[in-house]
Amino acid sequence: KASLPTAISCPLGQNMSFSPLLLASLLSPLSFTGAVWQNKDTHALEGTGRGLEGLNGQYSALKARKNLNKIRQRRYNSLQARHRDLLQQDLSMLRIEKVDRKNYKIQLTDHRSEYTGPIEIGTPGQGLDCIFDTGSSMAWVFSTKCRSSMCDMHTQFDATKSSTYSGSTTEMHITFGTGSLRGVLAKDTVSLGGMSLHDQGFGEILQPIGSVFQLDFDGICGMSYRMSKNVNASLLEGIERSSSLSEKSFTFYFGEKEAALVLGKAGRSLVNNQKMTWYPVTRQFYWESTLKDVKVGGKSILSTYSEGEISAVFDTGTSVLTMPTEDAGNTMALLQSSGVTCDMIEAGKAPKICYEFEGLDSICIRNWYERSIEGCTASLMTLDLTQENVFILGQPFFNEFITTFDVGNNRIGVAPVRS
């Protein structure tokens, strides 16, 4: 996922700041296989795409899905039959579960390189599978107006089949490290887990460029704060305006057996409120909170470059951890000098990475390593932003912690995932 500031161009010649922390993890994580630090070109590490770490070719690009609707229908029929058998035993197998009128649960599917969940756009609703991304702020989906063969690999939104669709001539152009897209802004009813957002702004993709768009998703649902004053398409603001939620929050849970996004107050069965630590949002742009220090194995890895204010960004759209290049170099040198081995990692004895906050509990991640047949590596990549010292807490963090994003109180709640 890219994590670099991105530009959106408009017909009036406006240059809008659009900084999705989207598509940053297509790049191989930093490697210390054989205890050898491998230098990487910073530009090669920045701004690459989501999900495909490219580790030993595990995550190959998807093949074109020409008969996508028929395939999905067969899959749906098979799942539905299986769900009837399991209904009395395992309710979590249901694709979307409406918990109650104030709380909606969207079951997420693990594609190994990314998680997706179902949404509907239009009247009647057209089903799409989207990545729910707390590092970007708007929704955009593949459109039938697209003439690229790459769009044929995805389910596409057809505006002509929706009675509530409202189009526009406002164009958008978003550039990522591994590609770019062109499209137009529109409005329609967007449904998330049974909650409907009327006249919700979103983007229709007309021209995708880059291999990242071969991944198994039909669009992005950005869940961060509005990132451009000129684009009134914030999905988060639409959820916040919804009268169907008494508590303006949402919670992500990534467990070994299931993953879910809960809109509204998470139930006690999912989150023990007494154990949740709340971190204040220090800037309403990303979901970020000010850091005091970052330590690996109890030793600070911060460089003089990071002497200014540093921030932790909680981002469901990044599949690795990121930090500035100098700090990443310090981290890998420390791991090398510590003599970390694959056996230590497998035994859970490798150094933890801990993020320290002023006056609050530290967040320590034990399993922030990746394994392959060739060796082991830190699930880490570099990210350098101008005048910002940002440490992204990506999927290794979410694998160990339930996270609540409290929109109403501008805070982030963190609690350990139950075993």
Q: What's the assembly state of these chains?
A: single chain
Question: Taking Cα atoms only, what radius of gyration do you get, to the nearest Å?
Answer: 21 Å
Strand order of the largest sheet: 5-6-11-7-10-9
Number of helices: 6
Low-confidence stretches: 2-68, 82-101
β-sheet strand percentage = 35-45%
User: How many strand segments?
Assistant: 28
N-to-C CA distance: 29 Å
Give a topology summary.
Blueprint: E1 6-9, E2 15-18, H1 42-45, H2 68-86, E3 96-100, E4 103-110, E5 115-121, E6 126-133, E7 139-142, E8 171-176, E9 179-192, E10 195-209, E11 219-222, H3 235-241, E12 249-254, E13 259-264, E14 277-280, E15 283-284, E16 287-291, E17 293-296, E18 299-300, E19 310-314, E20 321-323, H4 325-337, H5 342-346, E21 353-357, E22 360-365, E23 369-372, E24 375-378, E25 380-382, E26 389-393, H6 395-398, E27 401-406, E28 411-416
Parallel strand pairs: 6-11, 7-10, 19-26, 20-25
Antiparallel strand pairs: 1-2, 3-4, 4-5, 4-13, 5-6, 5-9, 7-11, 8-9, 9-10, 12-13, 12-27, 14-28, 15-16, 16-19, 17-18, 17-21, 21-22, 23-24, 27-28
Write structural notes for this entry:
By secondary structure, this protein is mainly β. The protein has six helices and 28 strands. The protein has helices at 42-45, 68-86, 235-241, 325-337, 342-346, 395-398; strands at 6-9, 15-18, 96-100, 103-110, 115-121, 126-133, 139-142, 171-176, 179-192, 195-209, 219-222, 249-254, 259-264, 277-280, 283-284, 287-291, 293-296, 299-300, 310-314, 321-323, 353-357, 360-365, 369-372, 375-378, 380-382, 389-393, 401-406, 411-416. The strands form six sheets. Strands 5-6-11-7-10-9 form a six-stranded mixed beta barrel. It has a four-stranded mixed beta sheet with strand order 15-16-19-26. The chain is globular. The model is unreliable at 2-68 and 82-101 (pLDDT under 50).
